[in-house]
Design a protein that fits this description.
about 10% strand, transmembrane helix, 5-stranded mixed β-sheet, Alpha-Beta Plaits, 13 helices, Diguanylate_Cyclase, about 70% helix, membrane, binds guanosine-5'-triphosphate, GGDEF_dom, EC 2.7.7.65
Amino acid sequence: MQAPDIDDRYVRMAVLFMLSLALLGATCATAIHWAAPVHRPMDLIVPPAISALYIGLIVALTRRPQWVVGIARIALVAGVLALAAPSWLYTLQATSTPGTQLIDILPPVSSLFVVLLVMLMIFVPGRLAFLLAALAWVMIALPVLAHLLLHREEMWSARGMDLLMAYGPASIMAVVLLPVQRGLAGKIRRLATERQRMEALLHRDPLTGVQSRLLGERRLREALDADAPAGVIMLDLDRFKAINDTYGHPVGDRVLQAVASGCEGLLRGEECISRWGGEEFLALVPEVDASGLLQVAERLRAAIAGSPVAPVQAVTASFGATMIQRGDTLDTVLQRADLALYRAKEQGGNRVEAAAS
Ligand SMILES: Nc1nc2c(ncn2[C@@H]2O[C@H](COP(=O)(O)OP(=O)(O)OP(=O)(O)O)[C@@H](O)[C@H]2O)c(=O)[nH]1
């Protein structure tokens, strides 16, 4: 069976809480039955046996948290059996012993039945949950309800009405409403996955596969906010229009892809490159000084110029590099890088220019 996809830690806490409560209930029942003047064999066996089992399950859960779903299911099966035994036994006793009323002798376990159904709906996947809920209802609720319907004076008593509500409408509500909640939870999970997918798409440039401008701007803002040295390099392919015009757009696309992946491959650690527009890219270089930044730019320039993309004979790019300065905004730092890039273009391209500080 597939484990439900809910937050693991929360589920473990909930199961531990449920087991502890059940243990407390079973221990109290054990003490009460031992102290009672009349000892029925079942009262002396079921509560201590359940207590021992739940102690074992709590120990197992603390040692092997990853077993949580299996442990919860064992607890559920034990719970069904522990609730079914008194239901049948006390009903038979009340029916067969004149003067004995079921509402007087049945232990106060009807609310536990509703809790059991809720846990079933949470921990058992798909249709099996409904099947088990129906089985639990037949094993636990049916004998009590049948007895009450056949003994109207018991049914109309306060305890009788309480049992009727718990084993009737309250149980049905749990079985009907929880799958609705489960469906909504599934929908929320699907939406979250879809959102992650959309975000991933927004963060990648579809043609080159490097970071999108959106993510690039976000990283640049983070660098502006951080109190650490960093620099940016704006690069623009030289005479790219001519490449498109001569060899066609598909070749131009291949050049962009080759340049992007080549540059990305040369960057290290936290350094990153984003496609800024058409044939323009922006590299962000954290933890660098001015001369280190120029070295990175020079490395990129040489790599592009040294790796022609067939059939294009020569691919080169111009670079404008600037350090991020105190008080810079996105606009001011980009403007400085742009001006430096413009100077590199003016001087014939295939060169790196540092921004005037
Ligand atoms: N193949 C291809 N071409 C693109 C893409 N985006 C923009 N371009 C082209 O890039 C060219 C940019 O031309 P320009 O701005 O004149 O730049 P340039 O020819 O490189 O000139 P300089 O920058 O001055 O060297 C245009 O022809 C655009 O159509 C793209 O995704 N794929």
